[in-house]
């Protein structure tokens, strides 16, 4: 075999998140963004190590095996890679990937996978970028092109959000196309991002326009027109955020309320949450109810228990747990999220929650009570190696680990097992239909 060789074969399995495996004459070929059962013509692009290659898809030889994608941007946008699979097959695909990652962890009760209540229009938040699709092209507003750092395609009609998102996107783009977008290469320009949040409970929308400080512009008239748009929901707040960071990320330096208010009200399992533009909140509201109900259902008894909710965000899990537990402590590194958690606890008349601002790695040492149960819902990279040992040292009777990245979960579970914890139950919950992402819940018990 050599580079540029063209071969035909079938994808036998797909490693998380999207690495297809093809075996031809005992030579392993990795082909990204492929599905089990696809028959492909591929071109060898790079030799990785002895007997292993990377390949590039030239042609799908059995397209009739899969359904047509529902979104016209499929293949251009890198977001929804599983649209060609019927939803039941998507669930099987994700469940199989998690099973492969956890297969060396011994026996546990396998609770399978729980589907999302909605396959489409489930997201309550989107972050769109300003840019252009090609060099010197007209301004665009949408998502990054697949595997492109700078190219942006206008996403008018994204299938995983409500139509209101597309109407607002179209309006903002047509109204501001006279202004320069922020060029990530030269760090010049003005328009950076458009953030839209929608309440599943009320249908209300919060719109946040993020710009640099390189131009001065009055958005008062724009906000007035925005509130008159023909949409199903109601725009109750329009914000203008300044961000001059050089990184391709929203780091707010100032936030101005141009119109209305700076938060939405959302309902989750009987509780009320006020959510700001930058608050962490699960992007699939109905799916979050399924996730938390499933997770807390693994715990036999919360009554009179002390619970630590580490990586607590805006305190959604903590407050749901607090309706049954004696005392809950939440730790979160983002101060704005902790402030919202405290506000929401007051709103829900919950007085047995204490929320602390800081790094889990540092703050766990200062908690005076010993927990009966620890809830972990860390970011995608999982738990810091030093923090995980401090968590283990509490010797909580049960640990409930909710993970949004199964590779991180698999790594962390090995450490818990080595330190006397037993994996009792594992359940997958699909919060992100059409995409590679999956939530995995694991219940561990102290075996010492």
What does this structure look like?
By secondary structure, this protein is an alpha/beta fold. It has three domains: 6-65, Beta Barrel (OB fold (Dihydrolipoamide Acetyltransferase, E2P)), CATH 2.40.50; 89-118 and 282-446, Vaccinia Virus protein VP39 (Rossmann fold); 125-267, OB fold (Dihydrolipoamide Acetyltransferase, E2P) (Beta Barrel). Helices cover 21% and strands 34% of the residues. It contains nine helices and 22 strands. The strands form four sheets. Strands 6-21-22-20-19-16-17-18 form an eight-stranded mixed β-sheet, with helices on both faces. A seven-stranded mixed β-sheet has the order 9-8-7-10-11-12-13, with helices on one face. A five-stranded mixed β-barrel has the order 1-2-3-5-4. A hairpin with a 5-residue loop joins strand 10 (191-198) and strand 11. The longest helix has 15 residues, at 87-101. The mean pLDDT is 94.
